[in-house]
Give the backbone structure.
Amino acid sequence: MPDYISAEGYRKLTDEYDWLYREERPRITAEVAYAASLGDRSENAEYIYGKKRLREIDRRMRYLRIRIESVEVVRPLDLAGAKARFGARVRVADEDGLEATYVLVGVDEADVRAGRISYQSPIGKALVGKSEGDEAWIHAPSGRRSVEILEVSYDPEPEPEPRS
């Protein structure tokens, strides 16, 4: 199964990569070079910390590069329909009548507190392919729960912000 991401999510990944490459890494490299010029590197905390930070930056950049190359950018409205798919806003109610709304997003865009869950998560997998009125079984730590799909909708994509 492809790893989907919205255009906005893709932009966030590429923006972070560009920031690390163009700003953060050069700044830390300059700090490390200055710290190295001060002499004894074995007891130079700025040098040791700077080298550690460079390794963290390089690791994150490798991760981002792999993610950027492996994701498939999808416009949720292209998939819109009566069934829940990537990008859908799904309103559900459990057996107790408690309602929740989830937006099915890519792994890199998930934010549970904001109701944005990965379409590959257990809840996301239970909702994908369901329509209004369907029942979905969610496997939660507290056990298996049933939810009824109350509504499936798709939000229009936000206009891209101009890059500076």
Remarks:
- Residues 81 and 153 are 8 Å apart (CA to CA).
- Residues 7-37 form the longest helix (31 residues).
